[in-house]
Protein backbone atom coordinates (compact mmCIF):
# COMPACT_ATOMS: atom_id res chain seq x y z
CA UNK A 1 0.00 0.00 0.00
CA UNK A 2 1.54 3.29 -1.16
CA UNK A 3 0.23 6.86 -0.92
CA UNK A 4 -0.29 8.77 -4.20
CA UNK A 5 1.95 11.69 -3.19
CA UNK A 6 5.00 13.16 -4.89
CA UNK A 7 7.23 12.10 -1.98
CA UNK A 8 9.39 9.01 -1.76
CA UNK A 9 7.50 6.28 0.07
CA UNK A 10 8.18 3.61 2.65
CA UNK A 11 6.30 0.50 1.58
CA UNK A 12 6.97 -1.87 4.45
CA UNK A 13 8.68 -2.40 7.80
CA UNK A 14 11.84 -3.72 6.12
CA UNK A 15 12.20 -0.59 4.02
CA UNK A 16 11.46 1.55 7.10
CA UNK A 17 14.34 -0.15 8.95
CA UNK A 18 16.74 0.35 6.08
CA UNK A 19 15.78 4.01 5.50
CA UNK A 20 16.33 4.98 9.14
CA UNK A 21 19.54 3.00 9.41
CA UNK A 22 21.07 4.21 6.14
CA UNK A 23 20.25 7.91 6.60
CA UNK A 24 21.38 10.11 9.46
CA UNK A 25 18.29 12.36 9.40
CA UNK A 26 14.87 11.06 8.42
CA UNK A 27 11.38 12.60 8.55
CA UNK A 28 8.49 10.18 8.00
CA UNK A 29 4.89 11.33 7.64
CA UNK A 30 2.56 8.40 8.24
CA UNK A 31 -0.97 9.26 7.16
CA UNK A 32 -3.78 9.00 4.66
CA UNK A 33 -4.82 11.17 1.72
CA UNK A 34 -6.89 13.28 4.09
CA UNK A 35 -7.23 16.97 4.88
CA UNK A 36 -4.93 16.91 7.91
CA UNK A 37 -2.21 14.93 6.10
CA UNK A 38 -2.05 16.44 2.59
CA UNK A 39 -0.78 19.86 3.73
CA UNK A 40 2.08 18.13 5.58
CA UNK A 41 3.06 16.15 2.45
CA UNK A 42 3.03 19.47 0.56
CA UNK A 43 5.34 21.09 3.09
CA UNK A 44 7.73 18.12 2.96
CA UNK A 45 7.75 18.16 -0.83
CA UNK A 46 8.72 21.80 -0.77
CA UNK A 47 11.42 21.40 1.89
CA UNK A 48 13.14 18.49 0.12
CA UNK A 49 15.29 20.78 -2.01
CA UNK A 50 16.26 23.01 0.89
CA UNK A 51 17.03 20.28 3.45
CA UNK A 52 19.27 18.01 1.40
CA UNK A 53 20.64 16.44 4.57
CA UNK A 54 17.21 15.09 5.50
CA UNK A 55 15.48 12.09 3.92
CA UNK A 56 11.75 12.86 3.52
CA UNK A 57 9.39 9.88 3.26
CA UNK A 58 5.73 9.07 3.66
CA UNK A 59 4.03 5.83 4.70
CA UNK A 60 0.40 4.70 4.37
CA UNK A 61 -1.14 4.66 7.85
CA UNK A 62 -3.62 1.91 6.96
CA UNK A 63 -0.94 -0.51 5.79
CA UNK A 64 -0.37 -3.29 8.35
CA UNK A 65 3.34 -2.57 7.83
CA UNK A 66 2.85 0.90 9.35
CA UNK A 67 2.60 -0.77 12.75
CA UNK A 68 6.31 0.11 13.05
CA UNK A 69 5.18 3.71 13.41
CA UNK A 70 1.71 3.28 14.93
CA UNK A 71 3.19 1.25 17.81
CA UNK A 72 6.06 3.57 18.66
CA UNK A 73 6.05 4.53 22.35
CA UNK A 74 6.44 8.16 21.26
CA UNK A 75 3.09 7.91 19.44
CA UNK A 76 1.09 6.21 22.16
CA UNK A 77 -0.91 9.33 23.01
CA UNK A 78 -1.53 10.29 19.37
CA UNK A 79 -5.18 10.42 18.33
CA UNK A 80 -4.94 12.39 15.11
CA UNK A 81 -3.38 11.98 11.69
CA UNK A 82 -0.74 12.24 10.42
CA UNK A 83 1.88 10.73 12.74
CA UNK A 84 5.13 12.54 11.91
CA UNK A 85 8.30 10.94 13.21
CA UNK A 86 11.82 12.40 13.07
CA UNK A 87 14.72 9.91 13.29
CA UNK A 88 18.40 10.69 13.89
CA UNK A 89 20.84 7.81 13.49
CA UNK A 90 17.92 5.39 13.63
CA UNK A 91 16.47 6.75 16.88
CA UNK A 92 13.27 8.77 17.32
CA UNK A 93 14.19 12.33 18.30
CA UNK A 94 10.78 13.98 17.87
CA UNK A 95 7.22 12.90 17.14
CA UNK A 96 4.23 15.09 16.25
CA UNK A 97 0.61 14.40 15.36
CA UNK A 98 -2.09 16.17 13.36
CA UNK A 99 -1.71 18.91 10.77
CA UNK A 100 1.45 21.06 10.94
CA UNK A 101 2.45 24.22 9.13
CA UNK A 102 5.73 24.75 7.28
CA UNK A 103 6.92 26.90 10.17
CA UNK A 104 6.24 24.11 12.67
CA UNK A 105 8.02 21.52 10.53
CA UNK A 106 10.99 23.82 9.95
CA UNK A 107 11.25 24.50 13.68
CA UNK A 108 11.63 20.77 14.35
CA UNK A 109 14.02 20.17 11.44
CA UNK A 110 16.30 23.01 12.57
CA UNK A 111 16.18 21.88 16.17
CA UNK A 112 16.74 18.13 15.86
CA UNK A 113 18.88 17.79 12.70
CA UNK B 1 10.06 46.01 -16.15
CA UNK B 2 11.90 43.96 -13.54
CA UNK B 3 11.52 40.21 -13.20
CA UNK B 4 9.58 40.89 -10.01
CA UNK B 5 6.91 42.84 -11.87
CA UNK B 6 3.73 41.03 -12.93
CA UNK B 7 0.52 42.17 -14.59
CA UNK B 8 -1.32 40.56 -11.73
CA UNK B 9 -0.43 39.05 -8.36
CA UNK B 10 -2.91 36.61 -6.89
CA UNK B 11 -2.71 36.03 -3.16
CA UNK B 12 -4.19 32.62 -2.40
CA UNK B 13 -3.94 29.41 -4.40
CA UNK B 14 -7.34 27.85 -3.79
CA UNK B 15 -10.17 27.45 -6.30
CA UNK B 16 -10.71 31.21 -6.73
CA UNK B 17 -7.02 32.08 -7.03
CA UNK B 18 -6.10 29.27 -9.41
CA UNK B 19 -9.10 30.01 -11.63
CA UNK B 20 -8.18 33.69 -11.75
CA UNK B 21 -4.64 32.64 -12.66
CA UNK B 22 -5.84 30.44 -15.50
CA UNK B 23 -8.03 33.19 -16.99
CA UNK B 24 -5.38 35.90 -16.60
CA UNK B 25 -2.57 33.80 -18.06
CA UNK B 26 -4.74 32.77 -21.00
CA UNK B 27 -5.48 36.48 -21.42
CA UNK B 28 -1.76 37.09 -22.02
CA UNK B 29 -1.09 38.53 -18.58
CA UNK B 30 1.96 37.69 -16.49
CA UNK B 31 0.77 36.18 -13.20
CA UNK B 32 2.29 35.36 -9.84
CA UNK B 33 0.27 33.22 -7.43
CA UNK B 34 1.37 33.37 -3.78
CA UNK B 35 0.01 31.15 -1.03
CA UNK B 36 0.86 31.17 2.65
CA UNK B 37 0.14 27.44 2.84
CA UNK B 38 -0.24 24.51 0.49
CA UNK B 39 -1.74 25.24 -2.94
CA UNK B 40 -5.35 24.09 -3.11
CA UNK B 41 -6.90 25.99 -0.21
CA UNK B 42 -9.92 24.41 1.38
CA UNK B 43 -10.38 22.11 -1.62
CA UNK B 44 -7.65 19.85 -0.26
CA UNK B 45 -9.56 19.65 3.00
CA UNK B 46 -12.43 17.96 1.18
CA UNK B 47 -12.33 14.20 0.71
CA UNK B 48 -14.81 13.92 -2.14
CA UNK B 49 -16.36 16.64 -4.27
CA UNK B 50 -19.50 15.37 -5.96
CA UNK B 51 -21.16 18.63 -6.98
CA UNK B 52 -18.57 20.12 -9.33
CA UNK B 53 -20.37 20.09 -12.69
CA UNK B 54 -18.79 17.92 -15.35
CA UNK B 55 -16.88 15.80 -12.86
CA UNK B 56 -18.88 12.95 -11.35
CA UNK B 57 -16.76 12.60 -8.22
CA UNK B 58 -13.22 13.68 -7.43
CA UNK B 59 -11.09 14.16 -4.33
CA UNK B 60 -10.35 17.75 -3.39
CA UNK B 61 -6.65 16.89 -3.66
CA UNK B 62 -7.01 15.70 -7.25
CA UNK B 63 -9.15 18.67 -8.30
CA UNK B 64 -6.74 21.19 -6.80
CA UNK B 65 -3.72 19.38 -8.30
CA UNK B 66 -5.32 19.56 -11.74
CA UNK B 67 -6.16 23.26 -11.32
CA UNK B 68 -2.59 23.94 -10.23
CA UNK B 69 -1.19 22.08 -13.24
CA UNK B 70 -3.52 24.02 -15.55
CA UNK B 71 -2.49 27.36 -14.06
CA UNK B 72 1.22 26.48 -14.32
CA UNK B 73 0.81 25.18 -17.87
CA UNK B 74 -0.64 28.53 -18.97
CA UNK B 75 2.37 30.32 -17.48
CA UNK B 76 1.45 31.28 -13.93
CA UNK B 77 4.39 31.44 -11.55
CA UNK B 78 3.35 29.75 -8.28
CA UNK B 79 4.96 30.09 -4.86
CA UNK B 80 3.52 28.21 -1.87
CA UNK B 81 4.19 28.43 1.87
CA UNK B 82 5.37 32.04 1.63
CA UNK B 83 5.02 34.55 4.44
CA UNK B 84 3.67 37.94 3.48
CA UNK B 85 5.17 40.79 5.45
CA UNK B 86 3.53 43.81 3.86
CA UNK B 87 0.95 44.86 1.28
CA UNK B 88 0.96 48.31 -0.22
CA UNK B 89 -1.79 49.31 -2.61
CA UNK B 90 -0.84 52.52 -4.41
CA UNK B 91 -2.84 53.96 -7.29
CA UNK B 92 -0.87 52.54 -10.17
CA UNK B 93 1.29 49.91 -8.59
CA UNK B 94 0.54 47.30 -5.95
CA UNK B 95 3.42 45.97 -3.88
CA UNK B 96 3.78 42.67 -1.99
CA UNK B 97 6.76 42.14 0.33
CA UNK B 98 7.60 38.70 1.70
CA UNK B 99 9.34 38.15 5.00
CA UNK B 100 12.45 36.89 3.18
CA UNK B 101 12.81 40.37 1.69
CA UNK B 102 11.49 39.55 -1.79
CA UNK B 103 9.38 42.35 -3.21
CA UNK B 104 6.88 41.91 -6.05
CA UNK B 105 4.89 44.59 -7.84
CA UNK B 106 1.85 44.40 -10.10
CA UNK B 107 -0.73 46.45 -11.89
CA UNK B 108 -3.56 44.47 -10.28
CA UNK B 109 -3.98 42.30 -7.22
CA UNK B 110 -6.54 39.56 -6.66
CA UNK B 111 -6.91 38.54 -3.04
CA UNK B 112 -8.21 35.00 -2.75
CA UNK B 113 -7.01 33.91 0.65
CA UNK B 114 -10.19 32.00 1.53
CA UNK B 115 -11.12 30.98 5.05
CA UNK B 116 -10.18 28.52 7.74
CA UNK B 117 -11.81 26.45 10.44
CA UNK B 118 -12.55 28.49 13.52
CA UNK B 119 -10.78 27.42 16.71
CA UNK B 120 -12.21 27.76 20.20
CA UNK B 121 -9.06 29.58 21.40
CA UNK B 122 -9.29 28.29 24.98
CA UNK B 123 -6.43 26.95 27.15
CA UNK B 124 -5.21 23.50 26.13
CA UNK B 125 -6.57 23.56 22.57
CA UNK B 126 -3.17 23.72 20.89
CA UNK B 127 -1.56 21.29 23.34
CA UNK B 128 -4.14 18.55 22.75
CA UNK B 129 -4.55 18.96 18.97
CA UNK B 130 -3.96 15.44 17.66
CA UNK B 131 -4.02 14.13 21.22
CA UNK B 132 -7.78 14.16 21.70
CA UNK B 133 -8.83 17.33 19.91
CA UNK B 134 -9.69 17.06 16.23
CA UNK B 135 -11.23 19.15 13.47
CA UNK B 136 -11.77 16.26 11.04
CA UNK B 137 -14.14 13.39 11.80
CA UNK B 138 -13.25 11.49 8.64
CA UNK B 139 -9.55 11.67 9.47
CA UNK B 140 -9.53 10.87 13.15
CA UNK B 141 -12.88 9.22 13.93
CA UNK B 142 -11.44 5.72 14.11
CA UNK B 143 -9.11 6.67 16.97
CA UNK B 144 -12.22 7.01 19.13
CA UNK B 145 -13.64 3.50 18.84
CA UNK B 146 -15.86 2.82 21.91
CA UNK B 147 -14.82 6.12 23.48
CA UNK B 148 -16.85 9.08 24.71
CA UNK B 149 -16.52 12.29 22.76
CA UNK B 150 -17.91 15.81 22.54
CA UNK B 151 -18.78 17.57 19.29
CA UNK B 152 -18.73 21.36 19.62
CA UNK B 153 -21.01 23.35 17.32
CA UNK B 154 -24.58 23.77 16.15
CA UNK B 155 -24.34 24.02 12.37
CA UNK B 156 -24.72 21.43 9.64
CA UNK B 157 -21.13 20.20 9.95
CA UNK B 158 -21.48 19.62 13.68
CA UNK B 159 -24.74 17.68 13.27
CA UNK B 160 -23.56 15.59 10.33
CA UNK B 161 -20.18 14.79 11.84
CA UNK B 162 -21.73 13.95 15.23
CA UNK B 163 -23.95 11.38 13.52
CA UNK B 164 -21.03 9.98 11.52
CA UNK B 165 -18.88 9.73 14.67
CA UNK B 166 -21.46 7.43 16.31
CA UNK B 167 -20.03 4.72 14.01
CA UNK B 168 -17.00 4.73 16.29
CA UNK B 169 -17.77 6.39 19.61
CA UNK B 170 -19.82 4.82 22.39
CA UNK B 171 -21.38 8.20 23.17
CA UNK B 172 -21.38 11.60 21.47
CA UNK B 173 -22.36 14.78 23.31
CA UNK B 174 -23.14 17.81 21.18
CA UNK B 175 -22.17 20.96 23.09
CA UNK B 176 -23.53 24.22 21.74
CA UNK B 177 -23.48 27.80 22.97
CA UNK B 178 -27.07 28.71 22.02
CA UNK B 179 -30.48 27.27 22.93
CA UNK B 180 -31.15 26.38 19.29
CA UNK B 181 -29.19 25.01 16.33
CA UNK B 182 -28.22 26.75 13.08
CA UNK B 183 -28.23 23.45 11.18
CA UNK B 184 -30.99 22.41 8.78
CA UNK B 185 -33.96 20.87 10.55
CA UNK B 186 -33.43 17.43 8.97
CA UNK B 187 -29.83 17.35 10.22
CA UNK B 188 -30.94 18.27 13.75
CA UNK B 189 -33.70 15.64 13.67
CA UNK B 190 -31.25 12.96 12.56
CA UNK B 191 -28.92 13.81 15.45
CA UNK B 192 -31.79 13.92 17.97
CA UNK B 193 -33.05 10.54 16.79
CA UNK B 194 -29.66 8.88 17.32
CA UNK B 195 -29.62 7.02 20.67
CA UNK B 196 -25.86 7.53 21.06
CA UNK B 197 -26.16 11.34 20.94
CA UNK B 198 -27.07 13.67 23.78
CA UNK B 199 -26.90 17.46 24.10
CA UNK B 200 -25.50 20.16 26.36
CA UNK B 201 -27.00 23.50 25.34
CA UNK B 202 -26.16 27.11 26.15
CA UNK B 203 -22.66 26.15 27.24
CA UNK B 204 -19.11 26.60 26.05
CA UNK B 205 -15.79 24.91 26.80
CA UNK B 206 -13.45 26.99 28.93
CA UNK B 207 -10.48 24.64 29.27
CA UNK B 208 -9.04 21.37 28.00
CA UNK B 209 -7.41 19.23 30.68
CA UNK B 210 -5.00 16.30 30.50
CA UNK B 211 -1.44 15.14 30.76
CA UNK B 212 -0.13 13.43 27.63
CA UNK B 213 -3.57 13.39 26.05
CA UNK B 214 -6.96 14.98 26.59
CA UNK B 215 -8.74 13.62 29.65
CA UNK B 216 -11.44 16.18 30.52
CA UNK B 217 -12.99 19.52 29.67
CA UNK B 218 -14.29 22.34 31.80
CA UNK B 219 -17.44 23.94 30.42
CA UNK B 220 -19.56 26.84 31.53
CA UNK B 221 -23.32 27.15 31.39
CA UNK B 222 -23.77 30.56 29.81
CA UNK B 223 -27.08 31.16 31.61
CA UNK B 224 -26.17 30.13 35.17
CA UNK B 225 -22.35 30.58 34.80
CA UNK B 226 -21.93 27.27 36.59
CA UNK B 227 -18.67 25.56 35.58
CA UNK B 228 -18.57 21.77 35.37
CA UNK B 229 -15.84 19.26 34.54
CA UNK B 230 -16.57 16.35 32.23
CA UNK B 231 -14.23 13.43 31.68
CA UNK B 232 -13.90 12.85 27.96
CA UNK B 233 -11.69 10.99 25.46
CA UNK B 234 -12.04 13.36 22.55
CA UNK B 235 -13.46 16.65 21.33
CA UNK B 236 -14.30 17.43 17.70
CA UNK B 237 -14.69 21.13 16.90
CA UNK B 238 -16.99 22.30 14.09
CA UNK B 239 -17.79 25.95 14.78
CA UNK B 240 -17.65 27.34 11.29
CA UNK B 241 -15.15 29.28 9.25
CA UNK B 242 -13.51 32.66 9.43
CA UNK B 243 -11.98 34.63 6.54
CA UNK B 244 -8.21 34.85 6.16
CA UNK B 245 -8.08 38.63 6.03
CA UNK B 246 -5.69 39.58 8.86
CA UNK B 247 -3.05 40.66 6.33
CA UNK B 248 -5.48 43.26 4.94
CA UNK B 249 -5.93 45.08 8.24
CA UNK B 250 -3.89 48.18 7.37
CA UNK B 251 -4.41 48.25 3.62
CA UNK B 252 -7.53 50.40 3.52
CA UNK B 253 -9.67 47.64 2.03
CA UNK B 254 -13.29 47.83 3.16
CA UNK B 255 -14.38 44.89 5.28
CA UNK B 256 -17.50 43.92 7.22
CA UNK B 257 -17.55 43.59 11.00
CA UNK B 258 -16.91 39.86 10.43
CA UNK B 259 -13.72 40.75 8.51
CA UNK B 260 -15.11 39.70 5.14
CA UNK B 261 -14.01 41.80 2.15
CA UNK B 262 -16.71 43.92 0.52
CA UNK B 263 -16.77 43.82 -3.30
CA UNK B 264 -19.08 44.79 -6.12
CA UNK B 265 -20.38 42.24 -8.62
CA UNK B 266 -17.13 42.47 -10.62
CA UNK B 267 -15.19 41.50 -7.45
CA UNK B 268 -13.66 44.99 -7.22
CA UNK B 269 -12.84 46.19 -3.72
CA UNK B 270 -12.94 49.87 -2.77
CA UNK B 271 -9.34 50.22 -4.04
CA UNK B 272 -8.94 50.39 -7.82
CA UNK B 273 -7.06 47.43 -9.23
CA UNK B 274 -7.53 45.36 -6.10
CA UNK B 275 -10.02 42.50 -6.35
CA UNK B 276 -11.25 39.88 -3.89
CA UNK B 277 -12.51 36.44 -4.92
CA UNK B 278 -13.70 33.38 -3.06
CA UNK B 279 -14.56 32.65 0.56
CA UNK B 280 -12.98 35.77 2.09
CA UNK B 281 -15.63 37.87 0.36
CA UNK B 282 -18.88 39.01 1.93
CA UNK B 283 -21.36 36.53 0.46
CA UNK B 284 -23.76 33.81 1.49
CA UNK B 285 -22.83 30.78 -0.60
CA UNK B 286 -19.32 29.40 -0.26
CA UNK B 287 -18.66 26.49 -2.61
CA UNK B 288 -15.89 25.48 -5.03
CA UNK B 289 -18.24 26.49 -7.84
CA UNK B 290 -18.83 29.99 -6.45
CA UNK B 291 -15.10 30.45 -5.80
CA UNK B 292 -14.37 29.48 -9.40
CA UNK B 293 -16.99 31.98 -10.59
CA UNK B 294 -15.52 34.76 -8.43
CA UNK B 295 -12.03 34.05 -9.76
CA UNK B 296 -13.25 34.15 -13.34
CA UNK B 297 -15.06 37.46 -12.93
CA UNK B 298 -12.15 39.11 -11.12
CA UNK B 299 -9.67 37.97 -13.76
CA UNK B 300 -11.77 39.10 -16.71
CA UNK B 301 -12.25 42.52 -15.15
CA UNK B 302 -8.57 42.80 -14.20
CA UNK B 303 -7.62 42.08 -17.83
CA UNK B 304 -9.41 45.31 -18.80
CA UNK B 305 -7.03 47.26 -16.56
CA UNK B 306 -3.97 45.27 -17.61
CA UNK B 307 -4.51 45.70 -21.35
CA UNK B 308 -5.68 49.31 -21.18
Largest interface between protein chains, with number of residues from each side:
A-B, 23 and 30 residues
What name does CATH use for the topology of the largest domain in chain B?
FAD/NAD(P)-binding domain
Mean pLDDT across all amino acids of chain B: 94
Task: Provide the low-confidence segments of chain A as ranges.
Answer: none
Number of domains of chain A: 1
Q: Approximately how much beta-strand content do the residues of chain A carry?
A: 15-25%
Radius of gyration of chain B: 22 Å
Discrete helix count of chain A: 4
Question: What is the alpha-carbon Rg of chain A in Å?
Answer: 12 Å
- Main β-sheet description of chain B: 7 strands, mixed
List keywords for this structure.
heterodimer, A: alpha/beta, Glutaredoxin, 5-stranded mixed β-sheet, 4 helices, 5 strands, B: 308 residues, alpha/beta, FAD/NAD(P)-binding domain, 2 domains, 7-stranded mixed β-sheet
What's a quick, concise take on this entry?
The complex is a heterodimer of chains A (113) and B (308). Chain A is an alpha/beta fold and 113 residues long.
Tell me about this structure.
- The complex is a heterodimer of chains A (113) and B (308).
- By secondary structure, chain A is an alpha/beta fold.
- Chain A has a single domain (8-112), classed as Glutaredoxin.
- Chain A is 31% helix and 25% strand.
- Chain A has 4 helices and 5 strands.
- In chain A, strands 1-3-2-4-5 form a 5-stranded mixed beta sheet, with helices on one face.
- In chain A, strand 2 (25-31), helix 2 (38-47) and strand 3 (55-60) form a beta-alpha-beta unit.
- Chain A is globular, with a radius of gyration of 12 Å.
- The mean pLDDT of chain A is 94.
- Chain B is of the alpha/beta class and 308 residues long.
- Chain B has 2 domains: 5-117 and 241-306, FAD/NAD(P)-binding domain; 133-237, 3-Layer(bba) Sandwich (FAD/NAD(P)-binding domain).
- Chain B has 6 helices and 17 strands.
- Chain B has helices at residues 15-26, 60-73, 137-140, 156-165, 185-193, 288-306, and strands at 5-11, 31-34, 77-79, 84-89, 94-98, 103-111, 115-117, 133-134, 148-152, 171-175, 197-200, 203-210, 214-221, 227-231, 234-237, 241-243, 274-276.
- In chain B, strands 1, 2, 3, 4, 5, 6 and 17 form a 7-stranded mixed beta sheet that branches. In chain B, strands 8-15-9-10-11 form a 5-stranded parallel beta sheet. Chain B has a 3-stranded antiparallel beta sheet with strand order 12-13-14, with no helix packed on it.
- In chain B, a hairpin with a 5-residue loop joins strand 13 and strand 14 (227-231).
- Chain B is elongated.
- The two termini of chain B are 17 Å apart.
- The A-B interface holds A 32-39, 42-43, 46, 76-81, 96-99, 101-102 and B 37-40, 44-47, 59-61, 80-81, 129-136, 138-140, 143-144, 212-214, 234.
Amino acid sequence: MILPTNLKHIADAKEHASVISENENVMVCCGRMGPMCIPVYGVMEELQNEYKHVEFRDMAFDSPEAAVIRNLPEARSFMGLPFVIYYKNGKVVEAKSSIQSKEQVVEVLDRVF
Amino acid sequence: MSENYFDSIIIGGGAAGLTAGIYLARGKATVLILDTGTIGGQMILTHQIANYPGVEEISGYQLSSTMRKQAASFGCEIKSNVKIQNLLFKDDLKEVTLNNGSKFTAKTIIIATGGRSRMLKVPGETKFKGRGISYCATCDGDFFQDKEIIVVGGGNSAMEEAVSLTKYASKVTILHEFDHFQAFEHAVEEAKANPKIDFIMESHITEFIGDEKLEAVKYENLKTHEIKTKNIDGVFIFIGYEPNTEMLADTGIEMTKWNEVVTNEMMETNIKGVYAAGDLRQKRVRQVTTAVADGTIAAVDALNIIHK
